[in-house]
Amino acid sequence: MTRQYRHNLNGSTLDKGAPQLEVDDVRLRFGGVTALADVSLTVHQGDIHAIIGPNGAGKTSLLNCISGLYRPQKGHIKLHEGEAAHVLTRARPSRIARWGVARSFQNIELFKHISVLDNLMLGRHVHMRHSVWQSFLFFGPARRREIAHRELVEEVIDFLEIQAVRNAHVGALPYGIQKRVEVGRALCLQPAVLLLDEPMAGMNTEEKEDMARFILDVNDLAGVTVVLIEHDMEVVMDISDVVSVLDFGRQITTGPPHEVKANPEVITAYLGEEQAS
Amino acid sequence: METFIQLTVTGLANGAILALAALGFVIIFKATGVINFAQGYFLLVGAYVVWAGIVDFGMHWSLAILVALVVAVLVALTTERFVLRPLVGENVISVIMVTIGLAFILQGIVQFIWGTEPRSMPAFIPRGTVAVLGVPLSLNRIWAMLLAGAILAALTLFFQRSRHGIAMRAVADDQQAAMVVGISVRRVFALAWALAAVSAVFAGIIVANLFGVSGEVAVFGLLVFPVVILGGLDSVPGAMIAGAIIGLLITFTAGYVGGGLQQVIPYVVLVLILLFRPYGLFGEVRIERV
């Protein structure tokens, strides 16, 4: 962030380093398949917490449990906010978004039929308080607030360097830019925790570098906690503070990148039994 | 020439009312994916409640309309909450069957309370004729057109521009994404049904003013189907344009051909559109690659 922005993108009031997101003994089953087997981990405010693992390890399932799209059969997920803690495993996704959990998806889930600007304005939905009646009148409070929200949205546009496509229809944009818009929509929520599901998948090196820079800026300068699923190990090891490794729904380890890299179990999970021995 | 202008005005008036009724149908389909066969019967409920309010209870017409709006919105919300929500994720045919059942229930209740004999709506829309450029036109048609047009414009602006309208479109576009930006899908569903009820009540009142209060109101409401099929099930501008087309088609057929053909012609259009352009003029073409 080269410029001074007026709005703070970080929605959390916790001190840096305080436990923010607690995943406690979460088990998720689909029929006979165990997607998550008693996973527990804690994300601390201000960290970039990467979740890695081979395909089918349960990474996206974990993110879906956190944002309320899946409901685990066992265990709790708590989000700390000041003295209070919200139990995410009992709430609907829209409520969880209101509490400050924003996310992007592996397969982009943008509103394809409307403009980039409208997509980002929808990211402000949780902060818009006017009623249906005021909406109908439009002039007055609804309009005033809309202008204030637009300011923040413009800052996010500036920050993600997507000024040129502001009015474009999302469906018509290149993949890399769509990914960026999706992160932008999540940022417009002023999230306490930002969940990114493979934000760099399918990107070329240059696009990856841009995305890595945005993630670092959001985290470093705005102080937003980031939970990141990513397959590019180089990026993960470079930018994360903490790495958790999942394999077949089990958590193998959690720790700083260099320790995780050296963990024999992690090497086995990635390379297979024989090569490791 | 005189006949042509008169038929055009009548056709556009009918078209505007049709578009209004169709708007509710389109909003429900767009936001919730439900094909609501009962839409026409919401017109009936609106017309009868207003009639009863004015005649049986001696209310001022504006108050009667307000009561009808409240009643219709309550019926719509109850239906959404207790009938359709439990069916989320069920197969399309079951949902369609349920809305057809709802149509019969609404009709049954209306007939049970008020019987089947036609009544006339006390006039609160001015009647008589007015000469425009030397052509006598019936005043109530012009009023009907203006009223329907104004309500249509208000609802459309709300749907296209307001925060709640955009939230509804977001849900229509991608439910999962809508949930994670904090849009409550349940509220959006409720709002869609409420808006549909509002548009149906206004359409019903205007129809009843022109043609009287009877089961015919629901028959007029059935014309919603040719309109939405022609315009595209999920297109708001499509509903308006198709409303005008069907409205004009009916009056021109009645005026120049006659012989009852006007009652059949909208459904001929429906069949032709389904054969040659099943997504309608403006509907989104869904291509599924398997």
Q: What's the helical proportion of residues of chain B?
A: over 70%
Main β sheet profile of chain A: 6 strands, mixed
| Oligomeric status | heterodimer
Q: Summarize the biggest pleated sheet of chain B.
A: 2 strands, antiparallel
From the N-terminal CA to the C-terminal CA of chain B, the straight-line distance is 55 Å
Q: What would CATH call the homologous superfamily of the largest domain in chain A?
A: P-loop containing nucleotide triphosphate hydrolases
Widest sheet, order of strands of chain B: 1-2
Class of secondary structure makeup of chain A: alpha/beta
**CATH-defined topology of the largest domain in chain A:** Rossmann fold
Mean pLDDT of chain B: 89
The CATH architecture assignment of the largest domain in chain A turns out to be: 3-Layer(aba) Sandwich
Number of DSSP E strands of chain B: 2
What is the chain-wise order of helices and strands of chain A?
EEEHEEHEHHHHEHEHEEHHH
Question: How many extended strands of chain A?
Answer: 10
Structural domain tally of chain A: 2
Flag low-confidence runs of chain A. Answer: none
Fold and architecture overview:
Chain A has helices spanning 59-66, 93-98, 116-122, 132-137, 141-159, 175-187, 205-220, 233-239, 257-262, 264-271, 273-276, and strands spanning 19-30, 33-44, 48-52, 74-81, 84-87, 101-103, 193-197, 225-229, 242-247, 250-255. With 277 residues, chain A is α/β, with parallel strands linked by helices. Chain A has two domains: 17-100 and 191-277, P-loop containing nucleotide triphosphate hydrolases (Rossmann fold), CATH 3.40.50.300; 109-186, no CATH class. In chain A, the strands form two sheets. Chain A has a six-stranded mixed sheet, with helices on both faces. Chain A has a four-stranded antiparallel sheet with strand order 2-1-4-5, with helices on one face. Chain B has a two-stranded antiparallel ribbon. Chain B has one domain (14-224). Chain B starts with a helix and ends in a 14-residue tail after the last helix. The model of chain B has no long low-confidence stretch (mean pLDDT 89). Helix content of chain B is 74%, strand content 3%. Chains A and B meet through α2, α3 and α4 of A and α5, α6 and α7 of B.
